[in-house]
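Loading example: each entry is read as three labelled lines plus one structure line.
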Amino acid sequence: MRRLHEGGRIDRSRPMEFIFDGKALAGYRGDTLASALLANGFGLVGRSFKYHRPRGIYSAGPEEPNALVTVGARGRREPNLPATTVELADGLVAESQNRWPSLKFDIQSVNGLFAPFLSAGFYYKTFMGPTRRAWMVYEHFIRNAAGLGRAGEEPDPDRYEVRNLFADVAVIGAGPAGLSAALAAGEAGAKVVLVEQDFLAGGTLLSEPADGEARAWLSVTLARLAHMPNVSMMTRTTAFGAYDSNVLGLVERHGSGTADPAKGEARQMVALLRAKTMVYATGSIERPLTFANNDRPGIMLASAARTYLNRFAVLAGTRVMVATDNDSAYSAAFDLAAAGAEVTIADGRAEPTHERLEQSRHWGIAVRRKSLISNALGRHAVRAVTLSEPGGTITLKCDLVVVSGGWSPTVHLTCHLGVRPVYREDIKDFVPGKLGAGQFVAGAVTGGFITAGAIEEGHRAGAEAAAFCGATKSVQPPFSLDLAEINAGPNGSHFVTSPRSGPLPHFVGGKDGSPARRPQDSLPTRSGERWFGNRKAELTKGKAFIDLQMDVTVSDVALAHREGYESVEHLKRYTTLGMGADQGKTSNVIAISAMAGLRGMAVPDVGTTTFRPPYTPVAVGALAGRSQRHLYKPFRRTPMHDWHVANGAQMLETGVWMRPSFYLASGRDVDQAYPAEMRMVREAAGLMDISTLGKIDVQGPDAAEFLDRVYVNGFAKLPIGRARYGIMLRDDGIVFDDGTTMRLSERHFFMTTSTAKAADVMSRLEFLLDTAWPGLRVSVTSVTDEWAAMSVAGPTSREILAAAFPDLNVSNEALPHMGFLEGRYRDKPLRIIRLSFSGERAYEIYTGASVGKEMWCRLIEAGTPFGQKPYGVEALGALRVEKGHVAGPEIDGRTTLDDLGLSRMAGKRSGYVGDVLGRREALSDPARPRLVGLRCLEPGKRLSGGAILFRPGERMHGHGLGRITSVTYSPTLDASVGLALIARNAAEEGAEIVAAYPMKGQTVRARIVSPIFLDPKGERLHG
Amino acid sequence: MLRIECPYCGPRDHDEFRYGGDASVIRPVHDDADFEAWYRYVFVRENPAGPHREYWQHVIGCRQWLVVGRDTRNHEIASVRSAREARA
Amino acid sequence: MPGYSVFSILRNGLSGDRYWRRAWRAPNPKPAYDVVIVGGGGHGLAAAFYLAENHGIRNVAVLEKGYVGGGNVGRNTTVIRSNYLLDGNTQFYEFSMKLWEGMSQALNFNVMFSQRGMLITAHSADQLDSFGFRANIMRLNGIDADILHRDEVRRLVPYLDFSDKARAPIHGAIFQGRAGTARHDAVAWGYARAADAHGVDIIQGCEVTGFVRDGERIVGVDTKRGRIQAGKVGLAVAGHTSLLGRKAGLELPIESHVLQAFVTEPIKPLVHHIVAHGTEHFYVSQSDKGGLVFGGGLDGYNSYAQRGNLGMVREVAEAAVALMPCISRLRILRHWGGVMDMTPDGSPIICPTPIDGLYLNGGWCYGGFKATPASGWCFAHTIATGKAHPLSAGYSLDRFRTGRTIDEAGIGPFAWLQ
């Protein structure tokens, strides 16, 4: 066990059990999975992506490239989680991944032997033969070897939520800068949301020794924030993306343990935070060093070793080699020494800071100057390192190597809106670019690494952000702990900013143990070849990784350069650098400076990578929230819905609505039911729920003029009390929608639209009135939901109407075809329009939605003696085919009035929407389609919608002459009939045609007939 | 997420709105028979990379058509007016 | 061009990979070329390659503002299919499919074209019928197509939602077995390398700032690296066609819109096909690296910013979970946006322009990647002969004037206007 007996921020009174790779292990509340594994002596926790090399725990945060595990089982299985971000929970089950049969013995680690042939992009150059489809064979193996963890195939049983949040000031990161910013903004009176990805607030302060001053500062600050009602702190919450208009995407994780969906607990919650201002206090991530075998378990970032020691009371090694090029790693060295480890420092600099040398002496630490780490020995655990020094090469034993190559500001979020980060030579890294108004940065993300400075900057940014949104109460000066003391003491802040002693770039291990050089020192490619990207050196010594997760080595970068993949984007795409689940948080800058070195250019001239959201991966389910299953795009129900369901309707989703497809009383399945329902309508009567039609109330002195413009046919002369069928075109002259509109008074119309186009028509009318014809005094209102509507159709419909409304005169004279009556029903308005879609005499009855069901029942009751029953959309669709009425399949967004045989509706009118472009030359081409009827000529066969039409004897190839759009069996004709769109020059009535349906291997002969199969003179509907 | 300051309803997420495209194209008067004018109105677009005047309708709200001035390079919104006022 | 093969890999691997050469040269621009192609994306590079390969025109330069393949060829979701309905589209995309099937060999560059099959789910009997129509058209044009019924879909992709709780039950699917994906960057690099081997100059970091005219005719371009004379100039800058077109004096029926794409963390093989939701904006495939790559609909407003909004991210996530419940726990690693040229009818433009010496390739909407080889082939033909290739004859600029639009979706000019 490597757990210290005391110290840390773990709760030793709350021991927890967890399982890793089948072994039961113990940890404490406050641990991460990574700290608990380290405490249990697990150095090896995973295998790498390409070469399956053994890997350990490299960091203590979301930048972790190595220690990826799978947590949970079945539907809760979650692969690729960095153990460093998994909060330990009692009963947690985790396993290592990308290994078989076991972590220690992984068959695919043989990939390492073939490494010389698996360099970057090797797959672009081979696997192209012997046959064209050979790739499919190779690919099978490549796919199985790739990927990391395995995902579950079962549905996720957990629940997610999406929340909408608003704030004046959003502060991202609760380290010293963020806490200070939240405090200042809160004091100023702003509404503040402070977001922290960790389960504890404090940031780097959490990694300070537990008995130090930092702890006191932190607890006082947190207490003050807790007392501010206008400041809310969200821990376990990652700001994963910055979006337009200052919207932040947050994802909040449930606390330790499993969320119980049965109790309504959400596993994760996405919050959309709309903030007036942002303070980015996102800190920084330590940069690694690059040398041969720098991926071995037992090598980790210096800051991580310090975090494990001070926060989790885990001493990750007892014989520690600290490899650094800057002062910050000394803090780790001192703390590790204080905890009893034997520490050696290999400092790449000729002159480490005097003060640090003094302190090292105090702790009994040997500091080796100009000492460059060039190789690590050991396979499953590091056991020694090779140092290259002016005097030669030396190998020293150790069981832990901690490295520091400086610090990379966490600029990611500041770049999401397209602001490019800016390179700063002094820190050899990128800082945020110029942000927009209301966007502030504070702390290490600015490239300043002193805690006291971060607190001051945070305070200033918080106060300015508050002022930006008008919160200007007086703010106390920054709450500053005696930071000088922290900096002065041996356990002082690890951030050091002096440009001279400051972070230098990484080192690259040399061949044959020769001293490594910084790429910037070796500009010419030729001399670079000596040490850089030499695969022979790699063969003899081992790989030097830049991207640990994607297994991208220094020589891969060199190869990319050699082959001309020089731009940063080419480099990334060719080598897969930064494409892993860690998004290259520890590798991007190293790779860019390596390429800069190879090209002999300054880093900013090589470019920078584009940071894309999310900052850390976000579960798809969390983004979907509760919008799942029946809550996803909820469908709409008519006022009569419950009646339909209770009376055997088979409901069908049509667009956003649920409608009866057919009723079980008519037949056991749709094929049996719909002809029965058709027969009923033709021979007696049927009742149909048509509430889904779009309904628009059109009023105003210019209402008639308005309708005259939007419909191809005229409405100005429509008498009051009459209805008219109308067609609208799009501006390009293609048919848009059809419907019936009736005139209630001189300046009042009631328009209906198709179910599918209701919303589009409404917006279109409003658009025309608001933008094109504001001079027209017309108001349009959608009343779709206000009216229930139903249609009684059939020879007995008039008797039914008379029975249902004994007070109304529904005689042919009082209510002729296209006539209209108004009345009242139970204090609700009642409108009855006589019009027909089926070809039978029919009445549409409109009344208030709240009495819709009542009205429906009344009509059912009144109609039963006359043989009336309800019918569904299947029968309706078939009835309209018999009558030759066009609907969705014909009005398909590509047909014109003329195509549909409706050009007589426009007559000689002009000035309607779509008039001019409807006259484009190709729209009267003889190859344009024309609506025709088809009647099947082969007994026992049926026409099929979607069949392609050819002339008899013609080779069946290409697009044919047209297609069948709608079909039905006609009980009246006892024939299979259909509507079709066929080229005009072939649309000859009486001609024979062949309908091919290759998917069923069918061809059917049919005759072209008039699309109106039934009652062409309209005697039934006028009678 | 764009936030559009509706003159009637206040700042709202853009998914409450329906986009209506370029507001700088001029619709010919309804009985204008000039083919070229209609062709240009329906099909030809300036499509600038920069400030763009465009229609949005607040469908889940006041249902007014608005004219929004927005930069297509960075999505920053400079102005929002009702379409009727913008025309007047 | 030193060939790529397993032998070259072995030979170079044993010598430490020191002798690989640049995939394509980095030449300085010459003062004049027979043809200058503006835009070093998939279409521009393919056109340059086919100019040399099919027409023997090798004195060609491809001018790229940034780096080769930096636009939509490197940002898309890599789906390749030929399941188009309308005359003019069907044959063009099938021709493209055939070129894909031989592309790696033709370019000596493995573009990893993987014909794993694509299915689009049908969520109603009507939709399945409409897929029947589409499949009929495909079969009649010699293209493979199948209609799958619910149980067959379930056997292929058991992880979709077949439960009775599914919001939109799966009735079946249309399936094209030859559809697939390819490694998108490799397509750009492969064409660049093969064109370069034919002598084409690929010039990166060379932004075109204007056009050189002789009277009415365009005879060259001004660039940030100086003036370059050209016998003919071809524009292949989809996403930014309006901006360059305006410099040349073209009025275009194009708007720029953002389409987003997403990738999850890499996982072991789970999705073996391309699966598309039949009614919502969601389609998914799994890359060879292991990430699930998926996409959705347009963000819905004019944009040149190559990034998308959170509303669409959520919409796509909702549709994803609705179709494929097990995706819920997988995590999105990155999402990004590409700028699309959207035309009024959703079909592209490949044609000579009214301006002498200027040829246009653009308006690819969201269908550009799968069209890359056919687009390059036809564009090269158009430039070389001055006339449209029969396969792309429908993609003229004047079709909006005449009414010969090819509106596959049937939604009309710039759909939001309706």
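Residues 116-172+255-342 of chain C form a domain with the D-Amino Acid Oxidase; Chain A, domain 2 fold (CATH 3.30.9.10).
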